[in-house]
Amino acid sequence: MLAYTGNGAYCYANSLHMSLLSAGAQREEIPDPGFIECLTTMPFGNMYLDLESGPLAFFSPVTIDPNEGLVRAVKALGWTFEEQRGGSDEEALARLRAAVSKEKVLVGPIDMGYLSYSPTHKYQVGADHFVVVLALENDHVLLHDPQGYPCAMLPMNEFMQAWKAERIDYKTAPYTMRTAFRKIEHVSRQEMIERTLPLIRENLLANPGGPVAFGGVEALTRIADALRGPKSNDLRDLLLHFGLPLAARRNADGAAFLREAGNTETAHYMEQQAVLYGQAQYKGAHKQWAHVADLIEQIAELEQQLIAAF
User: Chain-wide mean pLDDT for the chain?
Assistant: First the structure.
């Protein structure tokens, strides 16, 4: 399959890529964001949440979140960084001001609902995001938003609300930032892959089994069942505007990653899944949700084969 180049919801992989270049990495030694996304292991695994308000689903592992994914990627690359979080508004801002006077700062998770430079921010309340802060001015922040907004300006009060991340469930504390990126060992591309493969297998097998969170193949079958139910409007919106296009890209990148690892059989299954996610996007856009459910069931069958091949 031809590698995809274009826009997509790879905010933490893109932000990490920018941060490493800012820290002095040479372009030829830092993999592309698609490869970095695979080093986070976030493209491998599934999550279904059976919430009182209705079902939600993410085509990402049930046992780790983007914060942990970033740690995995940086370790696989042979780099390290310093992470700070928590404290009062004033303390957090003072930390950021001190850091950004020396370097660019990877910030996140933040709440996209406060990013008012985006014309769609009101529809993204509670969605998590990662950005790179370039500078602090008197009354605003200058940042690179990898969602398509370079050199974005955001009033300071809105930035602080976004950075507080009150509506981001997986955060461990508000005001998370990462600085002092530095290389601590030389790691070949093949070594990066070898460090990551065991973690991918863990992701694929992970399944808490409920009562709220489900993973693995079961997550996919529950998604298909939910799409046929009467209370899936939020789930459908999430999949149509975020989950399905992201899954198609992740599976295409995951297939390339596994093929580079020499696992041609598993790569084939992920490539087939990417095509089915693309088909599901079309069917969802035309409100043919029964067809989307059928396609998710086909993806679940491929997921079972993928796990067996690992």
Answer: 95
pLDDT digits (tens, 9 = 90+) for 138-147: 899 999 999 9
Q: What is the pLDDT of residues 142-198, one digit of tens each?
A: 999 999 999 999 999 999 999 999 999 999 899 999 999 999 999 999 999 999 999
Q: How far apart are CA 64 and CA 130, in angstroms?
A: 16
pLDDT digits (tens, 9 = 90+) for 59-85: 999 999 999 999 999 999 999 999 999
In angstroms, the CA 195 to CA 208 distance is: 24
How far, in Å, are 52, 84, 124, 132, 174 from residue 121 at the CA level?
25, 26, 5, 18, 20
- The pair of three-digit structure tokens given for residue 259, joined into one six-digit string: 């093929």
SS (H, E, C) 154-186: EEHHHHHHHHHCCCCCCCCCCCCEEEEEEECCC
Of 17, 33, 34, the closest CA to residue 25 belongs to 17
Q: pLDDT tens-digit profile of 240-285?
A: 999 999 999 999 999 999 999 999 999 999 999 999 999 999 999 9
Q: Supply the DSSP string of the chain, one letter for each residue.
A: -PPP-S--S-HHHHHHHHHHHHTT--GGGS--HHHHHHHTTTTS--EEEEETTEEEEESS-SS--HHHHHHHHHHHHTEEEEEE--S-HHHHHHHHHHHHTTS-EEEEEEEGGG-TTSTTGGG-TT-EEEEEEEEE-SSEEEEEETTTEEEEEEEHHHHHHHHH-TT-TT-SSSS-EEEEEEE-S---HHHHHHHHHHHHHHHHH-----SSEEEHHHHHHHHHHHHTSSS-HHHHHHIIIIIHHHHHHHHHHHHHHHHHTT-HHHHHHHHHHHHHHHHHHHHHHTT-HHHHHHHHHHHHHHHHHHHHH-
